[in-house]
Amino acid sequence: MKPSRYPEQILLLPYIGKWTLLAGLIAVLSGTASAFFLFALEFATTWRETHPWIIWLLPLAGFAVGWIYLKVGSSVEAGNNLLIDEIHDPQKVVPLRMAPLVLIGTVVSHLFGASVGREGTAVQMGGTLADQLTPIFRLRHSDRRILLMAGISAGFASVFGTPLAGAIFGLEVLAIGRLRYDAIFPCMVAAIAADQVGMAWGVHHTHYAMNAMVPVTCLSVAAVLVAGIVFGLAGMAFAKSTHAASGFMKRHIAYAPLRPLIGGAVVALAVWWLGTRYIGLGIPVIVEAFQQPVAPWDFIGKFVFTVGSLGSGFKGGEVTPLFYIGATLGNALAPLLHLPFALLAGLGFVAVFAGAANTPLASTIMAIELFGPQIGPFAALACVVAYLFSGHCGIYRSQRVGLLKYRLPPAASDRKPPVS
User: Fold this and answer.
1) To which H or E segment does residue 400 belong?
2) pTM more than 0.70
Protein backbone atom coordinates (compact mmCIF):
# COMPACT_ATOMS: atom_id res chain seq x y z
CA MET A 1 0.00 0.00 0.00
CA LYS A 2 1.46 3.36 -1.11
CA PRO A 3 1.97 5.97 1.58
CA SER A 4 -0.22 9.04 1.11
CA ARG A 5 0.77 12.62 1.61
CA TYR A 6 -2.62 13.24 3.26
CA PRO A 7 -3.47 12.26 6.85
CA GLU A 8 -5.60 9.14 7.22
CA GLN A 9 -8.42 11.22 8.69
CA ILE A 10 -8.63 13.34 5.51
CA LEU A 11 -8.82 10.23 3.33
CA LEU A 12 -11.63 8.98 5.57
CA LEU A 13 -13.93 11.88 4.67
CA PRO A 14 -15.03 10.52 1.24
CA TYR A 15 -15.79 7.17 2.90
CA ILE A 16 -17.93 8.88 5.53
CA GLY A 17 -19.75 10.90 2.89
CA LYS A 18 -20.38 7.90 0.66
CA TRP A 19 -21.77 5.68 3.37
CA THR A 20 -23.77 8.45 5.00
CA LEU A 21 -25.55 8.92 1.68
CA LEU A 22 -26.08 5.21 1.04
CA ALA A 23 -27.11 4.44 4.62
CA GLY A 24 -29.50 7.40 4.59
CA LEU A 25 -31.18 6.10 1.43
CA ILE A 26 -31.43 2.64 2.96
CA ALA A 27 -32.96 4.14 6.10
CA VAL A 28 -35.64 6.00 4.16
CA LEU A 29 -36.56 2.92 2.13
CA SER A 30 -36.43 0.44 5.01
CA GLY A 31 -38.00 2.71 7.63
CA THR A 32 -40.88 3.56 5.31
CA ALA A 33 -41.42 -0.08 4.37
CA SER A 34 -41.37 -1.14 8.03
CA ALA A 35 -43.85 1.59 8.97
CA PHE A 36 -46.27 0.47 6.25
CA PHE A 37 -45.78 -3.13 7.33
CA LEU A 38 -46.46 -2.36 11.02
CA PHE A 39 -49.62 -0.41 10.17
CA ALA A 40 -50.82 -3.27 7.95
CA LEU A 41 -50.00 -5.75 10.70
CA GLU A 42 -51.95 -3.74 13.27
CA PHE A 43 -54.97 -3.63 10.96
CA ALA A 44 -54.77 -7.37 10.25
CA THR A 45 -54.48 -8.23 13.95
CA THR A 46 -57.39 -5.99 14.93
CA TRP A 47 -59.59 -7.40 12.17
CA ARG A 48 -58.77 -11.00 13.16
CA GLU A 49 -59.52 -10.33 16.82
CA THR A 50 -62.93 -8.85 15.98
CA HIS A 51 -63.74 -11.62 13.47
CA PRO A 52 -62.43 -14.81 15.12
CA TRP A 53 -64.20 -17.06 12.59
CA ILE A 54 -61.55 -16.13 10.03
CA ILE A 55 -59.20 -18.69 11.59
CA TRP A 56 -61.09 -21.39 9.68
CA LEU A 57 -59.84 -19.86 6.42
CA LEU A 58 -56.19 -20.19 7.51
CA PRO A 59 -55.64 -23.39 5.47
CA LEU A 60 -56.88 -21.70 2.28
CA ALA A 61 -54.80 -18.60 2.99
CA GLY A 62 -51.73 -20.77 3.50
CA PHE A 63 -52.39 -22.61 0.24
CA ALA A 64 -52.75 -19.30 -1.64
CA VAL A 65 -49.49 -17.88 -0.30
CA GLY A 66 -47.70 -21.18 -0.94
CA TRP A 67 -48.99 -21.23 -4.52
CA ILE A 68 -47.87 -17.64 -5.16
CA TYR A 69 -44.38 -18.41 -3.87
CA LEU A 70 -44.26 -21.56 -5.98
CA LYS A 71 -45.15 -19.63 -9.14
CA VAL A 72 -43.24 -16.36 -8.73
CA GLY A 73 -41.25 -16.55 -5.50
CA SER A 74 -39.12 -19.69 -5.65
CA SER A 75 -35.95 -17.61 -6.12
CA VAL A 76 -36.58 -15.66 -2.90
CA GLU A 77 -38.19 -18.30 -0.70
CA ALA A 78 -35.00 -18.70 1.36
CA GLY A 79 -35.71 -15.27 2.89
CA ASN A 80 -33.21 -14.21 5.55
CA ASN A 81 -30.93 -17.07 4.59
CA LEU A 82 -30.72 -15.75 1.03
CA LEU A 83 -29.55 -12.37 2.34
CA ILE A 84 -26.92 -14.00 4.57
CA ASP A 85 -25.72 -16.18 1.69
CA GLU A 86 -25.40 -13.14 -0.56
CA ILE A 87 -23.28 -11.37 2.05
CA HIS A 88 -20.96 -14.36 2.38
CA ASP A 89 -20.80 -15.14 -1.35
CA PRO A 90 -22.19 -12.32 -3.52
CA GLN A 91 -23.78 -13.63 -6.69
CA LYS A 92 -26.58 -11.43 -7.97
CA VAL A 93 -28.86 -8.67 -6.76
CA VAL A 94 -31.73 -9.95 -4.61
CA PRO A 95 -34.91 -9.80 -6.72
CA LEU A 96 -37.12 -6.87 -5.77
CA ARG A 97 -40.12 -9.19 -5.63
CA MET A 98 -38.89 -10.51 -2.27
CA ALA A 99 -40.12 -7.37 -0.48
CA PRO A 100 -43.80 -7.37 -1.58
CA LEU A 101 -44.06 -11.15 -1.42
CA VAL A 102 -42.86 -11.43 2.17
CA LEU A 103 -44.93 -8.39 3.16
CA ILE A 104 -48.13 -9.85 1.73
CA GLY A 105 -47.34 -13.35 2.99
CA THR A 106 -46.74 -12.16 6.55
CA VAL A 107 -49.80 -9.91 6.72
CA VAL A 108 -51.94 -12.77 5.39
CA SER A 109 -50.44 -15.13 7.99
CA HIS A 110 -51.38 -12.73 10.79
CA LEU A 111 -54.79 -11.87 9.36
CA PHE A 112 -55.87 -15.50 9.31
CA GLY A 113 -54.23 -16.53 12.60
CA ALA A 114 -50.84 -18.17 12.11
CA SER A 115 -48.28 -17.90 14.91
CA VAL A 116 -45.41 -16.05 13.25
CA GLY A 117 -43.34 -12.94 13.92
CA ARG A 118 -42.35 -9.83 12.02
CA GLU A 119 -38.56 -9.48 12.15
CA GLY A 120 -38.02 -11.74 9.15
CA THR A 121 -40.27 -9.58 7.03
CA ALA A 122 -38.64 -6.28 8.03
CA VAL A 123 -35.13 -7.69 7.57
CA GLN A 124 -35.97 -9.13 4.15
CA MET A 125 -37.57 -5.89 3.01
CA GLY A 126 -34.63 -3.85 4.32
CA GLY A 127 -32.04 -6.08 2.67
CA THR A 128 -33.92 -6.31 -0.61
CA LEU A 129 -34.54 -2.58 -0.92
CA ALA A 130 -30.94 -1.83 0.02
CA ASP A 131 -29.65 -4.21 -2.64
CA GLN A 132 -31.55 -2.36 -5.36
CA LEU A 133 -28.99 0.43 -4.89
CA THR A 134 -26.18 -1.92 -6.04
CA PRO A 135 -26.68 -1.47 -9.82
CA ILE A 136 -27.63 2.20 -9.45
CA PHE A 137 -24.32 3.07 -7.80
CA ARG A 138 -22.37 0.26 -9.51
CA LEU A 139 -21.06 -1.08 -6.24
CA ARG A 140 -18.38 -3.75 -5.96
CA HIS A 141 -18.94 -7.02 -4.13
CA SER A 142 -17.20 -5.70 -1.00
CA ASP A 143 -19.47 -2.65 -0.89
CA ARG A 144 -22.53 -4.74 -1.69
CA ARG A 145 -21.89 -6.89 1.38
CA ILE A 146 -21.90 -3.79 3.54
CA LEU A 147 -25.02 -2.50 1.80
CA LEU A 148 -26.92 -5.71 2.61
CA MET A 149 -25.75 -5.65 6.22
CA ALA A 150 -26.94 -2.05 6.55
CA GLY A 151 -30.32 -3.07 5.11
CA ILE A 152 -30.62 -5.89 7.67
CA SER A 153 -29.75 -3.48 10.48
CA ALA A 154 -32.23 -0.89 9.26
CA GLY A 155 -35.05 -3.43 9.00
CA PHE A 156 -34.45 -4.87 12.45
CA ALA A 157 -34.08 -1.45 14.10
CA SER A 158 -37.20 0.07 12.53
CA VAL A 159 -39.52 -2.84 13.28
CA PHE A 160 -38.58 -3.09 16.97
CA GLY A 161 -37.59 0.49 17.76
CA THR A 162 -34.12 -0.59 18.91
CA PRO A 163 -31.55 1.21 16.73
CA LEU A 164 -28.38 0.14 18.55
CA ALA A 165 -29.45 -3.49 18.78
CA GLY A 166 -30.43 -3.36 15.11
CA ALA A 167 -27.00 -2.08 14.13
CA ILE A 168 -25.20 -4.79 16.10
CA PHE A 169 -27.60 -7.48 14.84
CA GLY A 170 -26.56 -6.74 11.23
CA LEU A 171 -22.91 -7.21 12.21
CA GLU A 172 -23.37 -10.22 14.48
CA VAL A 173 -25.91 -12.45 12.75
CA LEU A 174 -23.72 -13.51 9.83
CA ALA A 175 -21.31 -15.78 11.68
CA ILE A 176 -21.01 -17.26 15.14
CA GLY A 177 -18.05 -15.77 16.97
CA ARG A 178 -17.19 -12.97 14.52
CA LEU A 179 -18.25 -9.37 13.94
CA ARG A 180 -17.83 -7.43 10.69
CA TYR A 181 -16.35 -4.13 11.89
CA ASP A 182 -15.83 -2.88 8.34
CA ALA A 183 -19.60 -2.29 8.22
CA ILE A 184 -20.06 -0.75 11.65
CA PHE A 185 -20.50 2.86 10.48
CA PRO A 186 -23.03 2.13 7.68
CA CYS A 187 -25.00 -0.23 9.95
CA MET A 188 -25.11 2.33 12.76
CA VAL A 189 -26.23 5.17 10.49
CA ALA A 190 -28.82 3.02 8.68
CA ALA A 191 -30.27 1.59 11.92
CA ILE A 192 -30.50 4.91 13.78
CA ALA A 193 -31.93 6.77 10.78
CA ALA A 194 -34.41 3.99 9.90
CA ASP A 195 -35.79 4.06 13.44
CA GLN A 196 -36.25 7.83 13.14
CA VAL A 197 -37.96 7.44 9.77
CA GLY A 198 -40.40 4.94 11.27
CA MET A 199 -41.23 7.28 14.13
CA ALA A 200 -41.68 10.15 11.67
CA TRP A 201 -44.36 8.05 9.96
CA GLY A 202 -46.13 7.69 13.31
CA VAL A 203 -44.96 4.25 14.39
CA HIS A 204 -45.32 3.54 18.13
CA HIS A 205 -43.57 0.59 19.74
CA THR A 206 -44.78 -1.42 22.72
CA HIS A 207 -43.54 -0.29 26.12
CA TYR A 208 -42.56 -3.01 28.59
CA ALA A 209 -42.59 -1.87 32.21
CA MET A 210 -39.52 -3.04 34.11
CA ASN A 211 -40.75 -2.04 37.55
CA ALA A 212 -38.79 -4.58 39.62
CA MET A 213 -35.05 -4.93 40.03
CA VAL A 214 -32.75 -6.62 42.52
CA PRO A 215 -29.16 -5.81 43.47
CA VAL A 216 -26.27 -7.70 41.91
CA THR A 217 -25.34 -10.29 44.54
CA CYS A 218 -23.94 -13.80 44.51
CA LEU A 219 -27.44 -15.26 44.84
CA SER A 220 -29.02 -13.14 42.11
CA VAL A 221 -26.11 -13.81 39.74
CA ALA A 222 -26.37 -17.55 40.41
CA ALA A 223 -30.11 -17.46 39.76
CA VAL A 224 -29.65 -15.58 36.48
CA LEU A 225 -26.95 -18.04 35.42
CA VAL A 226 -29.36 -20.95 35.96
CA ALA A 227 -32.07 -19.08 34.06
CA GLY A 228 -29.62 -18.40 31.20
CA ILE A 229 -28.96 -22.12 30.86
CA VAL A 230 -32.69 -22.82 30.61
CA PHE A 231 -33.17 -19.98 28.11
CA GLY A 232 -30.32 -21.28 25.95
CA LEU A 233 -31.75 -24.79 25.89
CA ALA A 234 -35.16 -23.35 24.94
CA GLY A 235 -33.59 -21.38 22.09
CA MET A 236 -31.78 -24.47 20.84
CA ALA A 237 -34.94 -26.57 21.06
CA PHE A 238 -36.88 -23.96 19.09
CA ALA A 239 -34.29 -23.76 16.30
CA LYS A 240 -33.95 -27.52 15.98
CA SER A 241 -37.71 -28.10 16.16
CA THR A 242 -38.45 -25.52 13.47
CA HIS A 243 -35.85 -27.01 11.13
CA ALA A 244 -37.08 -30.53 11.86
CA ALA A 245 -40.72 -29.60 11.20
CA SER A 246 -39.81 -27.88 7.94
CA GLY A 247 -37.70 -30.82 6.83
CA PHE A 248 -40.43 -33.30 7.71
CA MET A 249 -43.03 -31.38 5.69
CA LYS A 250 -40.72 -31.09 2.67
CA ARG A 251 -39.85 -34.79 2.73
CA HIS A 252 -43.43 -36.01 2.98
CA ILE A 253 -45.37 -33.37 1.01
CA ALA A 254 -43.82 -32.68 -2.36
CA TYR A 255 -46.31 -30.02 -3.51
CA ALA A 256 -45.33 -26.90 -1.59
CA PRO A 257 -48.77 -25.19 -1.31
CA LEU A 258 -50.18 -28.25 0.46
CA ARG A 259 -47.78 -27.80 3.39
CA PRO A 260 -49.31 -24.57 4.78
CA LEU A 261 -52.77 -25.88 3.91
CA ILE A 262 -52.26 -28.89 6.17
CA GLY A 263 -50.41 -26.86 8.78
CA GLY A 264 -53.15 -24.22 8.71
CA ALA A 265 -55.82 -26.85 9.28
CA VAL A 266 -53.93 -28.19 12.31
CA VAL A 267 -53.47 -24.69 13.75
CA ALA A 268 -57.15 -23.83 13.18
CA LEU A 269 -58.27 -26.98 15.00
CA ALA A 270 -55.86 -26.23 17.85
CA VAL A 271 -57.28 -22.71 18.15
CA TRP A 272 -60.81 -24.13 18.26
CA TRP A 273 -59.68 -26.37 21.13
CA LEU A 274 -57.34 -24.04 23.08
CA GLY A 275 -58.38 -20.53 22.09
CA THR A 276 -56.48 -17.68 20.45
CA ARG A 277 -53.84 -17.07 23.14
CA TYR A 278 -51.00 -18.58 21.11
CA ILE A 279 -51.55 -17.09 17.64
CA GLY A 280 -50.33 -13.86 16.06
CA LEU A 281 -47.58 -11.83 17.69
CA GLY A 282 -48.91 -12.33 21.22
CA ILE A 283 -47.88 -8.86 22.42
CA PRO A 284 -50.65 -8.67 25.08
CA VAL A 285 -49.42 -11.90 26.68
CA ILE A 286 -45.82 -10.64 26.64
CA VAL A 287 -46.93 -7.45 28.42
CA GLU A 288 -48.91 -9.56 30.89
CA ALA A 289 -45.79 -11.62 31.68
CA PHE A 290 -44.11 -8.44 32.96
CA GLN A 291 -47.00 -7.63 35.29
CA GLN A 292 -48.28 -10.81 36.90
CA PRO A 293 -47.96 -14.60 36.90
CA VAL A 294 -49.09 -16.30 33.70
CA ALA A 295 -49.86 -19.95 33.05
CA PRO A 296 -46.62 -21.96 33.34
CA TRP A 297 -47.43 -23.78 30.09
CA ASP A 298 -47.84 -20.61 27.99
CA PHE A 299 -44.31 -20.85 26.62
CA ILE A 300 -44.99 -24.43 25.49
CA GLY A 301 -48.20 -23.38 23.73
CA LYS A 302 -46.48 -20.60 21.80
CA PHE A 303 -43.54 -22.88 21.04
CA VAL A 304 -45.75 -25.55 19.47
CA PHE A 305 -47.98 -23.11 17.56
CA THR A 306 -44.99 -21.26 16.12
CA VAL A 307 -43.04 -24.37 15.14
CA GLY A 308 -46.18 -25.69 13.44
CA SER A 309 -46.81 -22.42 11.58
CA LEU A 310 -43.25 -21.75 10.42
CA GLY A 311 -42.46 -25.39 9.82
CA SER A 312 -45.42 -25.77 7.47
CA GLY A 313 -44.42 -22.75 5.41
CA PHE A 314 -46.26 -19.69 6.74
CA LYS A 315 -44.34 -16.45 6.22
CA GLY A 316 -43.16 -14.16 9.00
CA GLY A 317 -40.36 -14.18 11.50
CA GLU A 318 -39.18 -16.07 14.52
CA VAL A 319 -38.08 -13.29 16.84
CA THR A 320 -41.34 -11.99 18.33
CA PRO A 321 -42.54 -15.55 19.07
CA LEU A 322 -39.14 -16.08 20.73
CA PHE A 323 -39.80 -12.96 22.81
CA TYR A 324 -43.15 -14.49 23.85
CA ILE A 325 -41.58 -17.86 24.66
CA GLY A 326 -38.77 -16.23 26.62
CA ALA A 327 -40.95 -13.81 28.58
CA THR A 328 -43.47 -16.46 29.62
CA LEU A 329 -40.72 -19.00 30.39
CA GLY A 330 -38.99 -16.40 32.54
CA ASN A 331 -42.28 -15.65 34.25
CA ALA A 332 -42.67 -19.36 35.06
CA LEU A 333 -39.12 -19.56 36.44
CA ALA A 334 -39.44 -16.48 38.67
CA PRO A 335 -40.96 -18.21 41.73
CA LEU A 336 -38.45 -21.05 41.49
CA LEU A 337 -35.46 -18.72 41.35
CA HIS A 338 -36.88 -16.16 43.80
CA LEU A 339 -36.58 -13.24 41.39
CA PRO A 340 -39.25 -10.70 40.32
CA PHE A 341 -41.58 -11.68 37.49
CA ALA A 342 -40.74 -8.58 35.47
CA LEU A 343 -37.00 -9.11 35.73
CA LEU A 344 -37.04 -12.73 34.60
CA ALA A 345 -39.63 -12.00 31.91
CA GLY A 346 -37.31 -9.33 30.52
CA LEU A 347 -34.27 -11.59 30.69
CA GLY A 348 -36.13 -14.43 29.01
CA PHE A 349 -37.42 -12.01 26.38
CA VAL A 350 -33.88 -11.32 25.13
CA ALA A 351 -31.96 -14.42 26.20
CA VAL A 352 -34.04 -17.03 24.35
CA PHE A 353 -33.60 -14.90 21.24
CA ALA A 354 -29.86 -14.64 21.93
CA GLY A 355 -29.59 -18.42 22.11
CA ALA A 356 -31.74 -19.14 19.07
CA ALA A 357 -30.13 -16.48 16.83
CA ASN A 358 -26.60 -16.64 18.28
CA THR A 359 -26.60 -12.88 18.82
CA PRO A 360 -25.72 -12.24 22.49
CA LEU A 361 -24.40 -8.69 22.00
CA ALA A 362 -27.41 -7.44 20.02
CA SER A 363 -29.74 -9.09 22.53
CA THR A 364 -28.00 -7.49 25.52
CA ILE A 365 -28.16 -4.05 23.93
CA MET A 366 -31.83 -4.64 23.06
CA ALA A 367 -32.54 -5.33 26.74
CA ILE A 368 -30.94 -2.03 27.73
CA GLU A 369 -32.86 -0.13 25.02
CA LEU A 370 -36.20 -1.69 25.93
CA PHE A 371 -35.96 -2.07 29.71
CA GLY A 372 -33.39 0.48 30.85
CA PRO A 373 -29.68 0.39 31.75
CA GLN A 374 -30.25 -1.12 35.19
CA ILE A 375 -30.92 -4.53 33.62
CA GLY A 376 -27.60 -4.47 31.76
CA PRO A 377 -25.44 -6.74 33.98
CA PHE A 378 -28.14 -9.39 34.33
CA ALA A 379 -29.07 -9.21 30.63
CA ALA A 380 -25.44 -9.61 29.57
CA LEU A 381 -25.01 -12.67 31.79
CA ALA A 382 -28.29 -14.29 30.72
CA CYS A 383 -27.69 -13.66 27.01
CA VAL A 384 -24.10 -14.91 27.02
CA VAL A 385 -24.97 -18.06 28.99
CA ALA A 386 -27.97 -18.72 26.70
CA TYR A 387 -25.70 -18.23 23.68
CA LEU A 388 -23.23 -20.79 25.02
CA PHE A 389 -25.85 -23.38 25.95
CA SER A 390 -27.79 -23.17 22.70
CA GLY A 391 -25.02 -25.06 20.89
CA HIS A 392 -23.79 -24.36 17.38
CA CYS A 393 -27.16 -24.34 15.68
CA GLY A 394 -29.62 -21.49 15.20
CA ILE A 395 -32.74 -20.26 13.47
CA TYR A 396 -30.73 -19.04 10.46
CA ARG A 397 -29.35 -21.98 8.50
CA SER A 398 -26.95 -19.81 6.47
CA GLN A 399 -25.27 -18.46 9.58
CA ARG A 400 -21.69 -19.70 9.58
CA VAL A 401 -19.36 -20.67 12.41
CA GLY A 402 -16.51 -18.15 12.56
CA LEU A 403 -15.20 -19.38 15.90
CA LEU A 404 -16.46 -22.14 18.17
CA LYS A 405 -18.29 -20.81 21.21
CA TYR A 406 -15.90 -22.42 23.67
CA ARG A 407 -12.70 -24.43 23.80
CA LEU A 408 -12.93 -27.99 25.02
CA PRO A 409 -10.29 -29.33 27.44
CA PRO A 410 -7.61 -31.54 25.84
CA ALA A 411 -9.17 -34.72 27.24
CA ALA A 412 -12.36 -33.97 25.31
CA SER A 413 -10.66 -32.93 22.06
CA ASP A 414 -12.10 -35.97 20.27
CA ARG A 415 -15.63 -34.85 21.08
CA LYS A 416 -15.92 -31.47 19.37
CA PRO A 417 -19.26 -29.71 19.50
CA PRO A 418 -21.46 -30.30 16.45
CA VAL A 419 -21.46 -27.50 13.89
CA SER A 420 -24.53 -26.94 11.73
Assistant:
1) strand 400-401
2) yes
- pLDDT > 60? residue 337: yes
Domain with CATH 1.10.3080.10 in the chain: 11-200, 218-401
pLDDT tens-digit profile of 232-257?
999 999 999 999 999 999 999 999 99
Residue 273 neighbours by CB under 8 Å, 6+ apart: none
| pLDDT-based confidence at residue 50 (cuts at 50, 70, 90) | very high
For residues 151 and 96, the answer to whether their CB atoms sit within 8 Å is no
What's the mean pLDDT in 273-281? 96
Nearest-angstrom CA–CA distance, 51 and 39: 18
Q: At what angle do helices 80-88 and 141-160 cross, to 10 degrees?
A: 150
| Fold held by 218-401 | Clc chloride channel (1.10.3080)
Q: b/e map of 124-147 (b: 16 or more CB within 10 Å)?
A: bbbbbbbbbbbeeeebeeebbbbb
11-200 folds as Clc chloride channel (1.10.3080)
